From TrEMBL:
Protein name: Na+/H+ antiporter subunit G
Spans through the membrane: 6-26, 38-58, 70-88
Organism lineage string: Bacteria, Pseudomonadati, Pseudomonadota, Gammaproteobacteria, Alteromonadales
PANTHER family (UniProt xref): ANTIPORTER SUBUNIT MNHG2-RELATED
Keyword Transmembrane helix: yes
Keywords: Membrane, Transmembrane, Transmembrane helix
InterPro entries xrefs: PhaG_MnhG_YufB
Database matches in NCBIfam families: CPA3_mnhG_phaG, PRK12674.1-5
GO molecular function, one term: sodium:proton antiporter activity
Length: 111
């Protein structure tokens, strides 16, 4: 195997592991506020690993840098935190209950 194939394999495994961890966190966390951390943090990092693996693979097998994966990465890294922020603001606005003992919930301003 060539070195870039090992690199692509390792990046795919790491990315897949982060996606799996984020998905498990989405399913197992007790309330909405905690559940949002899985997709916005771990899954975004996992998708970045998969996209970097795709960039390395297509850059080595074809001529030039793969622009599609770069654009997807930029779009993902910009939209995931913004959508997470908007979901949290909507949950606060609708006064979704948080699990007892969640830190920071007592500092939220009432409208």
């Amino acid at each position: 195997m060539l070195v870039y194939e090992w690199l692509v394999s390792i990046l795919l495994l790491i990315g897949g592991a982060f996606i799996l961890i984020g998905s498990i966190g989405l399913n197992k966390m007790p309330d909405f506020f905690m559940r949002l951390h899985g997709p916005t943090k771990a899954t975004t990092l996992g998708m970045a690993g998969v996209l970097i693996a795709a960039m390395v693979y297509f850059s080595m097998t074809k001529d030039g840098i793969s622009v599609k994966e770069i654009l997807i990465s930029i779009f993902l890294l910009i939209t995931a935190p913004i959508s997470g922020y908007m979901l949290i603001k909507a949950a606060i606005h609708h006064k979704l209950p948080a699990k007892d003992g969640t830190k920071g919930m007592d500092n939220i301003e009432e409208d």
